[in-house]
Design a protein that fits this description.
Elements lengths: L1 H19 L15 H10 L5 H14 L3 H5 L3 H8 L6 H16 L8 H4 L7 H12 L8 H10 L10 H11 L5 H14 L18 H4 L17 E10 L5 E5 L10 E2 L21 E13 L4 E10 L7 E3 L11 H13 L1
Parallel strand pairs: 1-5
Antiparallel strand pairs: 2-3, 2-6, 4-5
Helix pairs in contact: 1-11, 2-3, 2-8, 8-11, 9-11
Length: 348
């Protein structure tokens, strides 16, 4: 009985998808063969980023590096520069490294099987399943945020999705059809985007409404159950705007590992849970330092960051370089550092 029900859900979703699928630059139309490289790039970009934002980035990225070979031979600085504004820069670093591994170890061909994909840099269980299903039409239990929401409502799961990943994967394994699994996965993604939305879902147009337990119980807005919200910690630091005698400001490349790894930015003191103090000024190579009243708040995934702008002068720096603000476009400068400069200029 469950198998018959699963087949009905899958068939109705695919029929709906054939008529209502989104046209996206990385996606093949129903029944067409996708480009694995495009699927991989889009899946990495779509982690923590919305579809409308990704479209322009994806188009520029593919135009600049149309194949894995092109991406593998690119410089990391160029890749980070193209990525700036998307955030979560570890994705870009892993993407570049992954391209090099695929080019050298896999003959430039993205592996098909999840067990091989998951060995690659930046590819976890979800991304491995998505590439396998969407790029190669292999049945795989893909579960993203949209699919979590749909399954939570379909089966009235009374536990937050992140706490029942195994159960969600098991449900997906029963639903994914052997024929057109890639289209089926994308049909769920599209359903979650346009119909089974987080707030006020449009149940009247949903192709699987007859099978939805939450709809039959009139409890759709109850699902998915939200986890208890944790308060984000706050960190503080000084950010140093140090000018030379040509009125150029000091920039440095951040360490490869950690937040904003490999990116270009202004020097900062250590990020700490306590307010910065005079001793933190010693981390700067500047002189005639002035602690301003200008602060920038920036929120990362797991914490808030407050940077206090400190201005000053400097002549030498062991690893930094100087640039005029109108040259910043040439560098991979993250949004946080752009906010610092905009705040400084606005206060002048």
């Amino acid at each position: 009985m469950k198998a018959v029900l699963s087949m009905s859900i899958s068939a109705d979703l695919l029929k709906w998808y054939d008529q209502h699928h989104r046209r996206l630059p990385w996606r093949a139309n129903p029944g067409e063969k996708p480009t694995p490289y495009h699927v991989w790039i889009s899946e990495i970009m779509l982690q923590q980023t919305t579809v409308p934002t990704v479209i322009d980035y994806f188009n520029r990225f593919i135009q600049k590096w149309p194949s894995i070979k092109h991406l593998a031979t690119a410089s990391l600085d160029d890749v980070l520069h193209a990525w700036q504004g998307l955030g979560y820069y570890s994705r870009a670093r892993n993407l570049h490294k992954c391209a090099q591994v695929i080019a050298s170890d896999y003959g430039g061909e993205i592996p098909k099987e999840e067990k091989e994909l998951i060995k690659l840099p930046g590819i976890g269980p979800y991304t491995a399943a998505a590439i396998s299903a969407i790029a190669y039409d292999i049945p795989a239990p893909v579960v993203d945020g949209n699919i979590e929401r749909i399954l939570s409502r379909l089966y009235t799961l009374d536990t937050p999705p992140k706490q029942v990943k195994n159960k969600l994967t098991a449900y997906m394994n029963t639903l994914v059809p052997k024929k057109r699994p890639g289209d089926f996965v994308q049909s769920l993604m599209d359903l979650g985007s346009s119909v089974c939305t987080p707030n006020n879902p449009i149940c009247v147009t949903c192709p699987i409404q007859p099978y939805c337990q939450a709809h039959s119980k009139n409890t759709v807005n109850k699902y998915p159950v939200k986890p208890e919200k944790k308060e984000k910690p706050t960190k503080h630091a000084y950010v140093f705007l140090l000018f030379n005698n040509e009125n150029k400001v000091l920039l440095e490349k951040r360490p490869a590992k950690g937040l904003l790894g490999g990116m270009i930015g202004f020097p900062t003191s250590k990020w700490s849970t306590t307010e910065p103090c005079v001793k933190d000024l010693k981390s700067s190579t500047g002189k005639n330092l002035v602690i301003t009243q200008n602060k920038i708040k920036h929120t990362f995934t797991h914490f808030h960051l407050f940077l206090t702008i400190v201005t000053g002068e400097t002549k030498k720096h062991p690893s930094g370089f100087y640039a005029h603000p109108n040259e910043y476009v040439e560098f991979a400068i993250p949004t946080l550092m752009k906010k610092v400069w905009e705040k400084f200029k606005a206060a002048e």
